[in-house]
Amino acid sequence: MNVQAVIDSAWRALAYCFHPRVIYLSLLPLFLAAVSLGLLTWFGWEPGVVAVRHALDAWGISHTVMSWMDGVGLSFLRAAVAPFLLVLIAVPLVIVLCLLLVAGLMTPALVQLVRQRRFPDIPLGQATPWWRSLLWSLGASLTSMLWLLLSLPLWLIPLFAVVVPPIIWGWLTYRVMAFDTLADLASPAERDALLRQHRRSLLCMGILCGYLGAAPAALWAMGALTVVLAPFMLVLSVWLYTLVFAYSSLWFAHFLLQALRAQRLGTQGGAQIIDMEPST
Questions:
Q1: Count of domains observed in the chain
Q2: Considering the domain boundaries, does residue 49 fall inside one?
Q3: Which has more pLDDT, 244 or 87?
């Protein structure tokens, strides 16, 4: 794993987050996601809570859990169980929505920003059809959602709860960001070679981004207030997740474009490549 290139790309991505174009681009996914979630919350929150309550009533083990809560003096939390579960279901959907929005709307522009400032010698290749990128992202998203559902029982174990979700989000981030970063700059053969050669570095970056993406989940640790402020919390989560994924996109762009140029010049890693970006 090329640790030096990973670290170098990380701090460069952080510096780019303060670029005016990056700040501007981060507003569009936020607006679209906020409007979508606002409509979903307005028209679907109450029916969703009712549906979850009906599902709990029909599930035998839920009665056992409710009885246990009554026995330990937690009966006052009964009313919050269904909204909390609905929020627990909605948060992963918010994450996937943000990732797809960033990948589709922000990543191409951010990659071009990095290419123009640091790697102007990398020419634009043949553009990848939008539907191929969409299918790749949807396939990776559906796979990650499936793994999330299968791993839900493990979340009850504290150790697995802090390890499994970030790994799954990290794999999803790595697959989507790496493909979209190289979509219009590298040939399929170059892309496959880079993903194969730097798989460990890219997966490590994805997992770290997965942990960064898990940080906004702390917003939901506000107890009963979370249920009351659920619509606002969802929009705020979208904004935080958008920032995290924008940083992730920049991180992958710096790393992969450096690796692509190194590959084309026949060097090992990116350390031997002269950086063309002026120092700031």
A1: 1
A2: no
A3: 244
